[in-house]
Design brief:
Blueprint (H helix, E strand, L loop, with lengths): L1 E6 L15 H21 L4 E4 L11 H14 L3 E3 L22 E3 L6 E5 L4 E5 L23 E7 L1 E2 L8 E2 L1 H7 L3 E5 L8 E3 L2 E4 L16 E8 L2 E8 L5 E7 L7 H7 L8 E7 L1 E2 L6 H8 L5 E6 L2 E2 L1 H5 L6 H14 L4 H18 L14
Parallel strand pairs: 1-2, 2-3, 3-4, 6-7, 7-10, 8-9, 10-12, 15-16, 16-18, 17-19
Antiparallel strand pairs: 1-13, 5-6, 11-12, 13-14
This protein binds manganese (II) ion (MN).
């Protein structure tokens, strides 16, 4: 049996810029997570580390980042296989072309599959590289393992699909025919449960850190234990921060703090939230600034968007023979004819301001926060 750590899509040196820390700070956090993953591999006592592409976000990462990764690999001291992806594809100007990678780094530099035999493990690692930003071919087309008594692992960046792909289509029939024990994939940024077809298992670890609200929730790497006919996979969380994009019903309240708090994960202090409030709010609208202040110590940062509508009983007053009734009837009429959701939101806001003025209250906070 061999034990390996399978990671992918670090996207080191991403430009970033979404919510959360300053991009340079977040980039340093991503590097620190990469370092921690190599440390985890040593602690888990794995035999191999597999990096399935897009280790760097581009083909010209900062020199310091490349040096940093080389030091991590050298320090880990176990074989580290790298299969360049569509972002960090291999060419002669790529950092992967340099001659000073540590001896235990094995980089696949060819577009077609080549194989390395690790004698101490009686294991072949087969892999290939993206050599441009797209790959319309079929990386596993015609591939089959030769030495079926040994363990055979395939490392590549690509998409499993029946159809075509610009990112290295791996067809299920190719997987079945490959005879490999495990195919370590990269490219999809979300962890996939292990799949099995024929005698071959495959999985994606996803990215080890999210970089924005399109990479939400837990992120990590895979620890796989592989023997002939049996592959066991465990997901190991690695992210130092998480992004959450959640929708919460305001439940008719201007200050739905309890609903928000109960929707937050247990330890959210390092995490980055985008909260969209739906349903009905009170007649003063949502107290966005108040909520943000109350959540300050609960999370690293929070954006709150008010997409609520006024509580319905507010509109009940529209039938009164009063100035308030006249005002609400007029707004209700316009709301019915509102051409877009943005117009609806403006009219709801007008109702909130108007009712506050009629009642001699302070105008609501929040404004047109949905217009982003
Ligand atoms: Mn990719």
């Amino acid at each position: 049996m061999i034990k390996l750590l399978h990671a992918a899509d670090f996207h080191l040196d991403s430009p970033l810029g979404a919510a959360g820390p300053e991009p340079a700070v977040r980039r340093a956090e991503l590097r620190r997570t990469a370092e921690r993953i190599f440390e985890m591999a040593v602690k888990e006592n794995v035999d191999l580390i597999l990096l399935a592409g897009d280790l760097f976000d581009g083909t010209s990462p900062y020199l310091g980042t490349v040096e940093f990764i080389k030091r991590c690999i050298e320090k880990a001291g176990i074989p580290v296989f790298i299969s360049p992806g569509n972002h960090d594809f291999y060419n002669e100007r790529s950092p992967y072309a340099a001659g000073d990678w540590p001896k235990n780094a094995i980089i696949f530099r060819d577009n077609v599959i080549s194989s390395t035999y690790v004698k101490s493990l009686d294991c072949y690692v087969h892999g290939r590289a993206f050599t441009g930003p797209f790959d319309d071919g079929y990386p596993l087309d015609g591939f089959g393992v030769v030495d079926k008594k040994s363990l055979n692992i395939v490392l590549l960046h690509g998409e499993v699909t029946q159809g075509r792909s610009r990112y290295g289509a791996v067809r299920p029939a190719d997987i079945e025919r490959s005879g490999a024990d495990y195919i370590a994939l990269g490219h999809i940024h979300m962890y996939s449960e292990p799949h099995v077809r024929g005698g071959t298992a495959w999985a994606w670890p996803g990215c080890p850190e999210g970089r924005g609200f399109d990479e939400t929730g837990e992120k990590g790497v895979i620890i796989a234990e592989i023997e002939k006919g049996n592959t066991n996979i465990r997901f190991l969380p690695t992210a130092s921060r998480h992004y959450f994009d959640i929708e919460i019903d305001a439940g008719g309240s201007a200050y739905p703090l309890q609903s928000i708090l109960s929707a937050l994960p247990d330890s959210s202090k390092n995490d980055i939230f985008r909260i969209t409030l739906l349903g009905e709010s009170g007649d003063t609208g949502i107290d966005i600034e108040g909520l943000k202040a109350a959540l300050k110590d609960e999370c690293y940062s929070v954006e709150i968007y008010d997409k609520t509508v006024l509580r319905k009983d507010i509109w009940a007053g529209a039938d009164e023979d009063t100035l308030r009734g006249l005002f609400l009837r007029e707004l209700r009429e316009r709301l019915r004819g509102a051409p877009t959701p943005a117009d609806e939101q403006k009219l709801v806001l007008a109702a909130r301001y108007g009712l506050a003025a009629l009642d001699g209250r302070e105008p609501p906070t929040g404004g047109l926060s949905n217009e982003n």
